[in-house]
């Protein structure tokens, strides 16, 4: 047998492994660490047996305790519906237009809509629905697809470019990426569009050329007066409200590569009463029409 080598500095035996002159010491792990490690293994085995843990072909092991987070959520939702009781039933049966005429029903719808908005919509639109870059402010009166109660209900139900068969759909051409316009032409169009909101444009840019390019390429959706078209989801370019930024680079980027924001369809994710409450809540934020 090979003689055990002892490190001269620490007095600890080595494992015999050496790399680049560095020898590995044979230092056992502390017992408390080993016991903790073994306890974790035992705990894992107990957890596998007690709770849902292992996936199967079409299901999973349910565990001897029969615990299910999905069942707990379902029970909580059922309890919530029972708590809302008669008001929720009335809200579900009421026409959208009639909800805002009934102060008590309106207050209930707004309360439920506010809670649903915080859970589902606030991550994009903000807790106060003020939006951010790429996500519309829902408090103003600027709407891509219309701010009426029915229009909001439609948008919330089916989303925008969500893949749902009834989703709002449009597609702005990528004028630069597709080669429709040259770089200098895109700068001219961007400068002209920004001038409609009274923004300062780069010196030397031919705004008349930009106006003609706009008429030839953009007016078909945004209108000759650039006031937009809600039937197409084309924004008003004269109201100083910019979804992706009003600086020259941002507008050039929009014209060059287009924008294709997506809003999910909430039908199937939220129950019909909650979607109705959301529509009412958003409509009463201040910008609804």
TrEMBL record:
Cellular compartments annotated: Cell inner membrane
Residue ranges occupied by any Cytochrome c domain in the UniProt entry: 108-197, 205-286
GO molecular function per UniProt: electron transfer activity; heme binding; iron ion binding; oxidoreductase activity
Predominant subcellular localization, coarse grouping: membrane
Residue ranges of coiled coil: none
Binding annotation for heme c 2: 172, 218, 221-222
GO process annotations (BP): oxidative phosphorylation; proton transmembrane transport
Residues annotated as binding heme c 1: 121, 124-125, 263
Membrane-crossing segments per the record: 32-50
Cofactor binding remark: Binds 2 heme C groups per subunit.
InterPro entries: CcoP_N (IPR032858), CcoP_N_sf (IPR038414), Cyt_c-like_dom (IPR009056), Cyt_c-like_dom_sf (IPR036909), Cyt_C_IC (IPR008168), Cyt_c_oxidase_cbb3_su3 (IPR004678), Cytochrome_c_Oxidase_Subunit (IPR050597)
Subunit structure: Component of the cbb3-type cytochrome c oxidase at least composed of FixN, FixO, FixQ and FixP.
PANTHER family the UniProt entry points to: CBB3-TYPE CYTOCHROME C OXIDASE SUBUNIT FIXP (PTHR33751)
Function field: C-type cytochrome. Part of the cbb3-type cytochrome c oxidase complex. FixP subunit is required for transferring electrons from donor cytochrome c via its heme groups to FixO subunit. From there, electrons are shuttled to the catalytic binuclear center of FixN subunit where oxygen reduction takes place. The complex also functions as a proton pump.
Name by which UniProt lists this protein: Cbb3-type cytochrome c oxidase subunit
Species of origin: Rhodoplanes roseus
Gene: ccoP
């Amino acid at each position: 047998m090979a003689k055990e080598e002892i490190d001269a500095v620490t007095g600890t035996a080595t494992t015999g492994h050496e790399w680049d002159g560095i020898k590995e010491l044979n230092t056992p792990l502390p017992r408390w660490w080993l016991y903790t490690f073994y306890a974790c293994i035992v705990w894992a085995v107990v957890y596998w047996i007690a709770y849902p843990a292992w996936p199967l072909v079409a299901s999973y092991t349910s565990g001897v305790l029969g615990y299910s987070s999905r069942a707990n959520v379902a029970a909580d939702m059922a309890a919530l519906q029972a708590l809302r009781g008669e008001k929720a039933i009335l809200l579900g049966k009421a026409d959208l237009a009639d909800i805002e005429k009934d102060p008590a029903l309106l207050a209930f719808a707004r309360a439920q809509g506010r809670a649903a908005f915080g859970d589902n919509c606030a991550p994009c639109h903000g807790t106060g629905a003020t939006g951010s870059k790429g996500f519309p402010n829902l408090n103003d009166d600027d709407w891509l697809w219309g701010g009426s109660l029915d229009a909001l209900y439609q948008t919330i139900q089916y989303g925008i470019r969500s893949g749902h068969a009834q989703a709002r759909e449009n597609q702005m051409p990528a004028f630069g990426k597709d080669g429709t316009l040259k770089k200098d032409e895109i700068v001219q169009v961007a400068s002209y569009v920004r001038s409609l909101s009274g923004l300062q444009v780069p010196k030397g840019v031919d705004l008349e050329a930009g106006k003609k390019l706009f008429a030839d390429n953009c007016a078909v959706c945004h209108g000759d007066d650039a006031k937009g078209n809600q039937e197409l989801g084309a924004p008003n370019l004269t109201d100083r409200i910019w979804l992706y930024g009003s600086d020259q680079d941002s507008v050039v980027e929009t014209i060059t590569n287009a924008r294709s924001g997506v809003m999910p369809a909430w039908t199937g994710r939220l129950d019909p009463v909650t979607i109705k409450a959301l529509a009412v809540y958003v409509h009463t934020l201040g910008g609804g029409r």
